[in-house]
Design brief:
By secondary structure, this protein is of the alpha/beta class. The protein has 13 helices and twelve strands. Helix 6 links the parallel strand 9 and strand 10.
């Protein structure tokens, strides 16, 4: 008890519950593979009223270490510009409410809501498995992205250094990679990234969704602040690393009015390229995002979703390749025109970064006792 209130850890929250500081959502929404669905109800003893007055402690982050069998994932989506990906982590503490990767936690029998940002799977042997894959005689170098699903530089990376160990393997093999991140953590690894950039082996994009710190705090609560991300762009550019900005996702009437300002701020910081994707609401992301809208922008919620549906053929989401990233219809076309005019005016995307696949050197496979072979 504290100040006459009951304190309990939040494990589940109904759709109308209050937001929790430092988390994108407090809703432990059931996933589509759940065999049981639970909901709050009044049992006649005042339980519902009691829950409404209880003080909820923000849930702690749990790191679950996992030794995986493989770490390279193939991309079969024709509208994504890489062939392979390495995700050092599953789940993401940044807590971005709109994250398209939230539904992947369903495969772990965890909630795409609260669990996605509080139960983080760390692939502690990622570098070892990457080395094995690259050492295979059948492997041919392909365009590889680090952290395609969840940010490779989320908070626990400062301690576990899994992402750094993956980059160390790529650096040794001179294998190119790209990355999109919301974190300033990549600055720690400039000693690896900058020399690779000189050999055309790296392209980095920093994701900036808003320049408004108040909006960023509720939209992506544990990611770096907007001004800090601009400093990261500046640091990468000064180190000679090709750096771009991702203004994604574009959310109508929320961060959409900032599109040109974000592009301009990124260009001023040293970005030379850009891309932008409209809001995607697959599976459980849809109700999670709509709950967030009702909590933080109730006066705009209906208008936002009406515009989203206008770009999705009347639906909340359309997974069709090509259209899923850009949307369709008049409003999507107007967005594209604004983006194109701004990038042209700012000199973004004038030159394309071509990563060099020809420098790849196959690593020696580890021997059975765990040591590299000498001959």
């Amino acid at each position: 008890m504290r100040h006459g209130k009951t304190i309990r850890l939040v494990s589940e929250a109904p759709a109308g519950s209050a937001p929790v500081k430092g988390r994108g959502t407090a809703w432990a929404i059931e996933h589509r593979y759940s065999s049981q669905v639970s909901e709050s109800f009044d049992d006649g003893w005042g339980t519902a009223e009691q829950e409404a007055t209880e003080e909820h402690l923000p849930p702690a982050t749990q790191i679950i270490e996992e030794r995986v069998k493989s770490v390279l994932s193939s991309n079969e989506s024709p509208d994504i510009g890489f062939d392979l990906s390495v995700n050092p982590y599953r789940g993401c503490e940044h807590g971005c409410v709109y994250c398209f990767a939230r539904p992947t936690h369903s495969y772990l029998n965890m909630s795409p809501g609260l669990d996605f940002e509080t139960k983080i799977i760390a692939k502690v042997n990622a570098a070892e498995k990457l080395r094995e894959a690259l050492a295979s005689k059948s492997y041919e170098p392909l365009m590889l992205n680090i952290g395609a699903a969840t940010d490779a530089y989320q908070p626990i990376e400062r301690k576990l250094r899994i992402t750094r160990s993956v980059i160390e393997v790529l650096s040794e093999c001179e294998h190119p990679f790209s990355m999109v991140t919301k974190s300033s953590g990549i600055e720690r690894d400039l000693d690896l990234v900058a020399p690779m950039a000189q050999k055309r082996l790296v392209a980095i994009y920093v994701s900036i969704t808003s320049l408004d710190p108040e909006l960023a705090r509720i939209l992506e609560p544990r990611a770096a602040a907007p001004h800090r991300r601009l400093k990261t762009i500046e640091a990468l550019a000064k180190a000679g690393v090709p750096v771009g900005v991702s203004v994604s996702p574009i959310i109508p009437f929320i961060n959409e009015p900032e599109l040109e300002k974000i592009l301009e701020a990124a260009a001023d910081a040293g970005a030379t390229s850009a891309f932008s994707i409209v809001l995607r609401l697959p599976w459980e992301v849809n109700p999670i995002f709509q709950q967030w809208l009702d909590q933080h922008f109730p006066e705009r919620a209906a208008r936002v979703m009406a515009r989203v549906r206008e770009m999705r053929g009347g639906k909340d989401y359309d997974a069709k390749f090509g259209a899923r990233l850009k949307g369709e219809g008049v409003w999507a076309q107007l967005l594209h025109q604004r983006y194109s005019k701004a990038t042209a005016r700012l000199g973004l995307n004038r030159t394309r970064v071509e990563l060099d696949l020809t420098r790849f050197k196959r690593p020696r496979p580890p021997s059975k006792n765990g040591q590299g072979e000498l001959f």
